[in-house]
Amino acid sequence: MSKLEQRRKDIAKAQELARSGVLFAPAAFLNASVDELLEICNGCGAADSWFRPPKRIYGTLIVYACIIHDFMYEKGFTIEDKDEADRVFCNNMNRLITIDSVKWYKPTFLQRRRALKYYYAVKQFGGEAFWAGKTKMA
Questions:
Q1: Could you tell me where the beta strands, DSSP code E, fall in the chain?
Q2: Dihedral pair phi/psi, residue 20, rounded to 5°
Q3: What is the distance between the alpha carbons of residues 122 and 130, in angstroms, rounded to a whole number?
Q4: Please, which contacts does 5-8 make with residues 24 or more away whose CB atoms are closer than 8 Å?
Q5: What pLDDT was estimated at residue 134?
Q6: Hey, which residues does 57 pair with through a beta bridge?
Q7: Can you give the pTM of this predicted structure?
C-alpha cells in the first residue's frame, strides 16, 4: 500500500471513530471530504519537521488523534484554538489507549505517560506549526 493510500485509509478511520463518538472532533472535520483532509492532515509530527514521532504508543495506534489535531491546527486562529486542539489531542490519545487497553499485555500506565509527554511537547513546541501560514492579527 502506498503512503498516500495509507493516509487516505487513516483519515477515513479517524472520521469513522469521531462519528461513532470514540474520538472527539469538530463538526467541520466530520463534514470534510477525505480529499480535503489529505491536504491538511499529515499524521503525527509537523510536515516539515526533522523529527516525526511514531504513530503508535507501545502498540496502540494514535495516528487518528494526530489527524484530528492537524485539522484543528489548520483551522484555528487564536491561542485559545491552539490550546483546545492540544487538549483534544491529549483526550483523544487517552481514548484510544482506553479502547485498546482490553488487551492484557498493553502497558496502559506507560502509554498514558507517553501520551502526556506528547501533549506537553505540542503544547510547548507546537506554536510554530500552529502559526505557520497565518498572518498576525492587529
A1: 56-57, 60-61
A2: -85, -5
A3: 10
A4: 7/38, 7/41, 7/42, 7/43, 8/34, 8/38
A5: 83
A6: 60
A7: 0.92
